[in-house]
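Methods: holo model generation. Sequences were used as deposited, without trimming of termini or removal of tags, and paired with ligand SMILES retrieved from the corresponding compound records. Each pair was processed once, and we did not select among multiple samples. The sequence and VHF SMILES for this entry were:
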Amino acid sequence: MPLTIVVKIGTSSLTQPETGLLALSTIASVAETLSQLRREGHRVILVSSGAVGVGCARLGLTERPKAIALKQAVAAVGQGRLMRVYDDLFTTLQQPIAQVLLTRSDLVQRSRYLNILNTFKELLELGVIPVVNENDTVAVEELKFGDNDTLSALVASLVKADWLFLLTDVDRLYTADPRSVPDASAIALVDSIEELNKLQVQTGTQGSQWGTGGMVTKISAARIATTAGVRTVITQGKYPRNIENILQGELIGTHFTPQPEPTSARKRWIAYGLVPAGKLYLDAGAIAAISQGGKSLLAAGIKTVEGQFDTQEAVQLCDSSGNEIARGLVNYSSDELQKIRGYHSREISTILGYVGAETVVHRDNLVLT
Ligand SMILES: Nc1ncnc2c1ncn2[C@@H]1O[C@H](COP(=O)(O)OP(=O)(O)O)[C@@H](O)[C@H]1O
Ligand SMILES: N[C@@H](CCC(=O)OP(=O)(O)O)C(=O)O
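and the model returned the structure below.
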């Protein structure tokens, strides 16, 4: 049966750690593996990092730039180089590819989100392998994916992929960073992300010299993808051919089991496509009502309102310590909520002087995160 497969490869696999130069044999092996999957009839998307790393190598910079403008300029140099290499390799294998550069704001507006989906569908229908990256050169700090692990999970969720492969420079997830904790234990299967809390997995916040997020972003990518019903695997980029063995049932790397009942596309867009504009701190009753009772959020359960937002914007719903429990689209602006928080719904019209919605976040627009 043809599968939809998203493969993300990180800078740490695409470049040689000592020099920052391209790891040509790895890239060639990725091109061969993905072209073979295409020939077998699968639909394949490659999410490739490397614009900044390759740009640095091209310009002789010895470390990842921190200043935004420099990073954006370097990415512009590297992205072109990277695509040139991919196109040469894939063309040799008679496999057409396409460059798709996305920014976070492309997913925020529902019409643009659906537009991107249609473009992906068309490319896959044409037998093309889209090569996706964040459009680093125009991305603005407040509205960025920031890392390609998240981007790849959002793409996998958008196209309803069957598999997401996160190729990196370690063979799988461990209970702690194997670089600093050599006796950390390997984790082969994760049935739910909550298990990782129980195992007390330590992820650090640092990646390798050229990578960005380390394992933190890979785990949050696995959370997004598995919620969307996408089986996710963290495995080593040096051996892309393992992807075929994994598809044939071998348990290589760390596998994250997809949720049996994926959240609807609209709710996934609310949870992961939109960028929250504020926070609502809830009391215990409201938390129980939304998380266990599947109820809508009412004004009475809101203790504090943080941020400036308009009606129909996305907000985070948090416990008193600020831990996010859910996200949703609000029926009231932040100014209105400051006035009605803590009050019973029947009092809203008297306080505001007009009749508004009974709920602050209706359950159809609310998703547990
Ligand atoms: N619990 C963990 N298990 C495995 N690797 C970990 C863990 N915590 C941190 N890491 C680090 O994450 C790195 C991979 O992340 P990163 O460099 O961002 O890769 P990429 O460029 O592929 O995105 C590994 O080299 C490893 O040192
Ligand atoms: N868009 C950036 C990638 C950022 C990123 O997530 O890098 P990595 O951790 O190596 O996957 C680039 O192309 O350099």
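The radius of gyration is 22 Å.
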